[in-house]
Amino acid sequence: MKLYFAPGACSLSPHIVARELGLPIEIKKVNNKEKTVEGGGDYWRINGRGYVPALELDNGEILTEGPAIVQYLADQKPESGLAPKAGTLERYRLQEWLNFLTSEVHKQFTPLFKPNTPEDYKPIAKQNIATRFDWLDKQLAGKDHLMGKTFTVADAYLFVLLNWTKVQQIDLSKWPHLAAFQKRVAARPKVKEAMRAEGLIP
Predict the structure, then answer these.
(1) Per-residue pLDDT averaged across 170-184, rounded?
(2) At 58, which CATH number?
(3) Are 52 and 11 spatial neighbours (Cβ–Cβ below 8 Å)?
(4) pTM for this predicted structure
(5) 49, 98, 173, 177: which could join 140 in a potential S-S bond, CB 3.0 to 4.6 Å?
(6) Termini Cα distance of the chain
(7) 161 within 8 A of 105, measured Cβ to Cβ
């Protein structure tokens, strides 16, 4: 399998998941601005929407959208516990988390990364993020991870989103449970491995 990624982008989430699972995966770096693949290639031909991540399966099929990719990867090794068994209520709880993260947190960050976003809108976007963080911080009180004691694919996604607070000068210390969660996940050996591979940490 090949994972198309941009360093530190939301593609870091399936990258972490693949390493946590010990799946053999080739990573292909994408230039997000030019939509080219390192070593040559037009990324538009891989993903017609132009953004990462994209997962090229061994049969040549392309799977896109982070929440779909991480579940696909986890289902390759169901015994890992990174995603509850398909059809269980717990699996729908995981999908609930992935949906919330992608639509209510990830998408609030998007305007902050776009160069054409008006400056006077950015404080509004940050306030929207803060509102979501207020709720998330309460959900993590007394828990190691979003679904309790077990690290799941949703935790990998939340970790990546929390990392974006540094770039956007959002002080995470306002949300102590989120800050503690980020530190816990950052300490995981496979998370460090993925971040080193993307050049995010030495």
Answers:
(1) 97
(2) 3.40.30.10
(3) yes
(4) 0.97
(5) 177
(6) 26
(7) yes
